Amino acid sequence: MNTEILGVALQILLLLVISYPLGKHIAKVYKDGNDCMRFMAPIERFIYKLAGINPNEEMDWKAFLKSLLIINVFWFFWGMILLVSQGYLPLNPDGNSGQSPDLAFNTCISFMVNCNLQHYSGESGLTYFTQLFVIMLFQFITAATGMAAMAGIMKSMATKTTKTIGNFWHYLVISCTRILFPMSLIVGFILIIQGTPMGFDSKMTIPTLEGAEQTVSQGPTAAIVPIKQLGTNGGGYFGVNSSHPLENPTYLTNIVECWSILIIPMALVFALGFYLKRKKLGYVIYGVMLFAYLLGVFCNVHYEMAGNPKIDEMGIDQSCGAMEGKETRLGPGATALWSVTTTVTSNGSVNGMHDSTMPLSGMVEMLNMQINTWFGGVGVGFMNYYAFLIIAVFISGLMVGRTPEFLGKKVEAREMKIATIVSLAHPFVILIFTAISSYVWVYAPEFVESEGGWLNNPGFHGFSEMLYEYTSSSSANNGSGFEGLGDNTYFWNYTCGLALIISRYLPIVGQVAIAGLLANKKYTPESAGTLKTNTVTFGVMTFCVIVIVAALSFFPAQTLGPIAEYFSIY
Predict the structure, then answer these.
(1) What residues form DSSP beta bridges with 204?
(2) Which of 236, 256, 316 is nearest to 481 (CA)?
(3) What is the pTM of this model?
(4) Mind listing the pLDDT tens digit for each residue in 532-565?
């Protein structure tokens, strides 16, 4: 077997083996605290006391959301102040200056919503201080926020009838202390052993083989990379992210980092089944997501390892695959696997340039984010699936003449309206903003030119770059990009920031609201007339609903971008 294919298969197998026991651990953390990390309880009690929090106080869904939004507003202003003034703060041995207000706005919004879109290069756009006390801090907080929201939804689903869904602050703290922090320590130690920098020295000056001198950035890289991956954050310490040899030095670190992206989202699906004591439901959801993920892996690995037919026509050997934009030490197979793994989640980190992938690989990457339900970000991945689950329950119930119910609660018009708004808001934001940017590009060339021109590829691929930017960086909370787009401009900083706000908080508000409304309803025991939601048939139904909605929403735009580019090559 090809060693690259073997490496891909082993990474996927590692994910499947570890996600099950990790899911059991996460369920224990959120359900009763009787998990292997309960020795962290004294530290948690200290945090509660310091912050004046009563972790045992139950919240209804409105109070839960209020707490979630308040903490995000606070940290936004914290980040803005530090980023603008970072040039005057300590831990800045390289003398990097503060960010402009528009760039700081975009950076803060991006990292607060777990997108980690970067319109700057990490080693020159930030200092060690802001890398730690803005970027790394936000990556813990935003990941824990999504996990806390899912914990609240799981509690609402598990209780027969209740007006409360737990305590947001309690879920936030234990998500950090019992899941994210210990796993980050393990990954961090592996990175340090493999050569990832961990220190506070300034840039190194190194003589090259040609006799010239080159400056190499370093810093506390190994502290930040683990949570960037485990929290499905994705923001690169260096500008080229995990394709940088110091951020991802070896094939082992590549495996560990790629594994870290998907392990918690996968485990959370199992955690749902354990928490609800409905393991079969967890298996069905996991199976749907895994099938879609493997489909994307098969497609991208095939096209990236097959190479570019235009280069074949020139008589150039392509036995190594399509290598433009890829690291030779990793190869096209590992890059293709990473490209799917990072886009089925809201991670967005890269170990190769997505702008250089083959057209249909780019289409898969965009579709993963446009569908935005295959595993997804930590916590929020299942929450996006949850909205489609409600729609599938309602449609299936109508089709077979049974009462639409999910876990003993009737799904009625109010829940359906919210689920529909959440499901349609995602394509609305992507397509409307892409249409605006396309209009400006065509009909306001003077404005575009004043901002540096935006596109290096004005054809089909140029349209794909703009579509990808709003798909990934704005609406899917992903943050990766087709980097042929010049996006550090007033237009892109502010429009992406606005799209980020809408796309992060509207779905969370809607999904938690659905959970709260259903939790408050009277529980109806299952009967012969109850629609079964833990069967393979219902899993297929949910998959079809998701794909149909995505196809109807995005296929016309995909036709103008990557599909047209594919046919222009062949």
Answers:
(1) 216
(2) 236
(3) 0.90
(4) 888 898 899 999 988 888 778 899 999 999 999 9
